[in-house]
Model the fold of this input.
Amino acid sequence: MKKKVVILGSTGSIGKSLINIILKDKKNFEVLLLTANKNYKELYKQSKILNVKNLIITDLKGYNYLKDKNKKINIYNNYKNLNKILKNKIDYTMNSITGLDGLEPTLNIIQKTKTIAIANKESIICGWNLIKKKLKKYKTSFIPIDSEHFSIWSLVGNHDHRQIDKIYITASGGPFLNWPKKRIMKATPSKALNHPNWSMGKKISIDSATMMNKVFEVIETQRIFELPKSKIKILIHDKSYVHAIVKFKNGINKILAHDTNMKIPIFNSIYQNINKSIVSKELDIRKLNNLNLKNIDINRFPLLKILRYIPNQNTLFETVVVSANDELVNLFLNNKISYSELHKKLLSFINLRRFKAYKKKKPLNLSQINNLSNSVRLKIRELCI
Done:
């Protein structure tokens, strides 16, 4: 029987990688739904290749174009139609939608899928308590797709999380690892986008340069594995070969290494517990013999100070941090603020009294998170423009 699959955010890099994996084994998969925000041309192309009968395109222009183009495909404009599209529980869903827009589809589709793989940081950071509640209610399995969290998930396996002594996640250091601090703070968007190891979108590339992505990854680790921040540490590993190390209380340390390629966690998530092979490089002994792991320099990457303010439990404060960072990164990419200002304004903004109060407020629903996010973004624009 074919494995029934949905890909949310199919036109991004994660979605495309998953589609390439499926195309090599097409006889064993049936893709029921693909979704995108604006890239309707790529979405339509994917639907033809995979013979997909249901598409969601949230951009109105793309929706109108596809609606007129092909009457044999069901075209929808939002995620409120999932009940109509998916009559029964499917086998696997990949959520690779970028940004906080990914949270609503995540919450809506959990009840419709046996397994959900999430590559959307913002969903986990801002709404983990809402996600966790639905996962439990509908008995849906969860697989994190970020290379670090997939590695931790793989290493921990069936171990009781209380047996974890320490988790180490690695950071390449991005394009500015060896730059003098004064030069870093004068960096231009083009320099910040030039990641040495990974090919990524603009937003995540800037977060990698500022090390904000590691702030987010520590928060994700806290939430997914129910650990205090004191048990999570970031190590610089400029080769991006080792993705996580887990130290257990029984004295055993487990290390997970793989090629700098997101296809590996994606492949293993969709073929979980199935004996399948992926073409990968030979074990790189040279890299293993020279891991060159280092403690991180917080003076070089000052946004790591934000971790001091993050509560151990899921609160609305994380939505403040995510939304403020999103807006400031966008302003930097559009040359509205400098690299130095990005850091200073973010650290200053999240310490405003009105926003610090959200550390004591637990997310209750999606509307609450979205309203706060919109308020934060508006305030950032008011202060910066």
About this structure: The chain has three domains: 3-144, 146-302, 315-385.
